[in-house]
Structures are given as structure tokens and as C-alpha cells.
Amino acid sequence: MTSILHLSYRAGPILRLQNPLLSRICPRATPTPSTTGSFLQASRYLRTMAGITIPTTQAAIQISRTGGPEVLEYHTSLPVPTPGPGEVLIKNNLSGVNYIDTYFRTGLYQSPKPEILGREGAGIIVALGSGPNPQGFKVGDRVAWLNTGGYAEYSVAQAEKRVVRIPEGISDEQALSVLLSGITTLSLVKEAYPVQKGDWILVHAAAGGAGFLMTQMLKDIGAKVIGTAGGPEKAELVKSLGADVVIDYKSPEGANWLGKVMEVTGGEGVAAVYDSVGKDTWEDSIKAVKRKGTMVFFGNASGPVPPLNIQLLSAKNIKVLRTSLFGYIATQEEFDYYTNELFNMVKSGKLKTRLHKIYPLEQAAQAHIDLEGRKTTGKLLLRP
């Protein structure tokens, strides 16, 4: 009997399971017409013959309103999600914490409530939805994924363009350190502004999860990097990555970081600025861009930027981009390119990962406090 499980169910007292044997075991369950898969026991748990146990309820972090970290609510009996057509159900070993999660929490980005936060995770596929499976995923595959609902024991994700097998030799921690943040940064230096050898590039928050990776990518290309960071420890970290110039904006001289940028570039400015900070750096970042240069904006860590006076761009013919990750991985080919490139860079040693801390799932609020307090370097993860 096959051990691959195809299921469709709704958590609660009535389960709908794709298994022809179930109607003889649990009359309250309604089998669907296209039934395949292993024997399932209808109780609090659904069991496959492969020995994988899927509960009907799970622990997760949910928000029912917007606000500060206090709105992150730890629940222990939320429904395990159902994999739909073309989806997979993943038992998460780790879930990523990213700044974008705080945007949904605060309401800067709108989303329906209640909501389970989290945009990425890593774990094991425990069930497949119905329909085609062109990627050939199997129950038991170790994968990393991008979707919603990551702060949970179980998550569903669309198999196409959102789920990738983790290669041998790469840990779950490494995979999540370069998934969302890594695809974001690699697409920025490859496509938002295609960096060339010898370019002067300014990277804000260079010790953060994205900046840490981007600085290494830029040096691998051969760019000259100016990295900003807050505090001597973070500045030393950025220096260790090979940045040509490091500016500690918390130091007395760091307050005039724009002046330093113009000084080291001979008054010309940089070919591109990569700015994930937002409100606090936006105006001077535009001033730091050279003639015909590019301003790439991809975050709001200090708050949303004010309305742009477009006349500021005309003096030097500056281009401004506000990027979206999924605009760069709209096809399977693009998703495969970026994930393969990142994993190869990790395996070859070109790209180092840095883990700040793994928090228990129930401490997600503390992870947000630390992240927003700019107390972190590298990646933050949750352990469901």
C-alpha cells in the first residue's frame, strides 16, 4: 500500500478525507470521489501507513487586531490547515521572522484578520493536495517554503514557485537564513540594479538579515561597498564581511553619513543605494545617488517614507524603484534560478549565514521586540 497521502479535510468534529476505507470506519466523514492514499484513522489524529501523524489542531501565533508585539497571541488548538489542489502540507521545524511580519502586525500592510503571521518556514512534507505535482514532491521531503501562516506547527504552501527541496549539506537554519532574505537581496543586486564590478554601492542596515547577505553578494561581484550600521559591534560585523567603508550612524561622525559617502566617492555619489530603513534615511539616500544612478527602496524599518517630491530626481536623472520580491519570482524558472544560486553559494562558502537566535514559538512577541529594537544581527527564527 502506498505511503503517499493525498488528503482534504477540515479540522473539527467532521473530517473530509480522501480515502475509500474511511466511510466504513467513520460514517461522519465524507470521502471525495478521487480517492487515493493510505489508511487514515479518524480520531484527533490522522495517521498514514508511513507512520506520520497529523493532528487536527496545532499551536500557532495568531493576531486578531493590529498593534504592537502584544497582539501576538499564542494558541494551542487552532486548526491544522488543509492542503488544496497543488499545495503541500508541511510540518515546520523552523519558521522565519522577517521585518515584513511587523508591517502586517502593525497594519502598515493590510491583510484579513484573524491571521497567522510568518512568510517562510522549513520542515517536512507530511501531505500532498490533489492535482498535478510537476515538481515530484513526496511525503518526507525536507523543504523550505514561502507563503503565509508560518508562525505555526503546520503550514500549507503552493508547491509551484513557493516550495524548494533543501539540498544535502545545508541545514534548515541555513536554508531559512537565505530563503526570503536571500532571494530578496540577490534579486536586488541582479535585477533591481544590476551591480557591476567597481561600482560604489551604499547598503543601509548592513548588519541586518538582508544587509548581511547583500554585503557579501556585492563583494563577490567586485563592488565597493559602503555599509551603515548602528553601534560598534554591528559596525565590526559589517567590516568583517569585507565592506570597504563602514559608517556607524550612532557615532558622532556617523550623524553625517551622507557627507562621508560623498567624501569617499569623490563627491560623485554611489551607483545605487539599497535602503530597507525607510523614513529616517530616505531623503539623504536620494542625495547620495550619483548622476544616472539608482535608488532601490525595499523596506520601512523606521517607518513609511513621506510623499516623494519627484523634482528631487530630475537634477541627476535618478531612477527610483520600490521592489516586491514576488515580482522577481513570478515563474518556476525564476524561483529555481534564485534558490539554486543561493544554495550553491552557501555550499561553496561564498555566502555565510548568521543566526541571531532561535526563539520558542510562544516567544514570538519577544522576537518582534528584539527585531524592532534593532538589537539583532543576522536571522531570527522560531521553533514551533
TrEMBL record:
Record's GO cellular component terms: cytosol
Native species: Coccidioides immitis (strain RS) (Valley fever fungus)
Annotated ranges, domain Enoyl reductase (ER): 67-382
Pfam families per UniProt: ADH_N, ADH_zinc_N
Protein name as annotated: Probable quinone oxidoreductase
Keywords: NADP, Oxidoreductase
Lineage: Eukaryota, Fungi, Dikarya, Ascomycota, Pezizomycotina
Example GO molecular function: zinc ion binding
Origin superkingdom: Eukaryota
Keyword Oxidoreductase: yes
PROSITE patterns according to UniProt: QOR_ZETA_CRYSTAL
Keyword flag Cell membrane: no
